[in-house]
Amino acid sequence: MAGTISITRTGAEIVLPARLRATVAFCAATGQVEAAADLARRYLSRSELSPVDTHERATAFDRTLRERFPAYAAARSGRH
What we know:
Blueprint: H1 17-29, H2 33-44, H3 55-68, H4 70-76
Helix pairs in contact: 1-2, 2-4, 3-4
């Protein structure tokens, strides 16, 4: 990937869930499954998610993308 995708507000450590999900979905839909998988993996591995997000919601979104995009599912599971 040519540049870095920021999912935070002005470089702060607060992740904006809507921006994250839009970015991950866009990457998965446009064939950038490695970037999508990396963003999802990094977000889900955080000790604390955004104050306006829950681990259950983030996991449900990840599960939905895995069902919709087989290449994303393979990248998330390390089978790419």
